[in-house]
Amino acid sequence: MALSGQRIVIIGGSSGMGLASARAVSAAGAAVTIASSDQARLKAALAGLPDSCDGAVVNTRNEADVAALFDRVGELDHVVYTAGDTVRPQPLADLPLDTARDLFEVRFWGAVAAVKHAARRVRPGGSIVLTSGTVAVRPAPGTALAAAGAAAVEGLTRGLAAELAPVRVNAVRPGAIRTPLWDPVPEPRRAELFATLADRTLTKSIGEADQIAAAHLYLMENRFVTGTVLTVDGGSILAGG
Ligand SMILES: NC(=O)c1ccc[n+]([C@@H]2O[C@H](COP(=O)([O-])OP(=O)(O)OC[C@H]3O[C@@H](n4cnc5c(N)ncnc54)[C@H](OP(=O)(O)O)[C@@H]3O)[C@@H](O)[C@H]2O)c1
Where does the UniProt annotation place the signal sequence (predicted)? Predict the structure, then answer.
């Protein structure tokens, strides 16, 4: 298998898409380090993963944390960055500028820090996979900053693919995916929201974290793919969702 014996770091690997990827790549024979900021969450995630996985507490708001992670790991084959905190839709007029700037901190600047400290350690044939979102291309009112952040990640992906070649750099652009990111929305509102979002896709479904993990695997394994933003959204962009 292409990933057998490879070393993979997943930042954001304690939950949702990152955790699903940790499961998938370890099943494909890779040694995996998952990283996230909350020790308890990390421990709970590791308990459900094979012994070939370890964990590191890393807050990607702190460059020193990120640097220490890659110093410790050393040479590696792939990095997946799925770290992201909860963002509530808010019109720009109501958004203090510091809060607006902060929306970029984990999703964009955290990814920048990760690539900065990981890139020189990626072995030949290796890759980096970042995360944007369909909000980049189909924003709703109240999501202008989230849209800008996701679009910035996509621009970063193309720029870094050119700059870091032959290291490959790609991004996954997920639609609505059922993960713990949505837990702050209480039931039954969450179920209603998922039904509405599913209705706005061509597949009439909400995505599952495993489907994003499959996209991560494809981008890691296919050595002819770089600078690509892979949309995994049930056709929501096409459907006008
Ligand atoms: N789910 C969706 O519908 C959807 C759609 C489009 C895009 N996205 C984006 O996809 C990414 C992954 O989402 P998900 O649904 O898998 O979310 P999730 O289940 O909430 O997982 C997010 C991960 O990020 C980690 N994290 C948060 N802040 C961090 C920090 N400062 N430093 C390090 N790690 C941090 C979390 O762990 P700790 O809490 O332990 O730090 C967790 O492991 C996010 O950027 C999200 O915005 C999600």
Answer: none
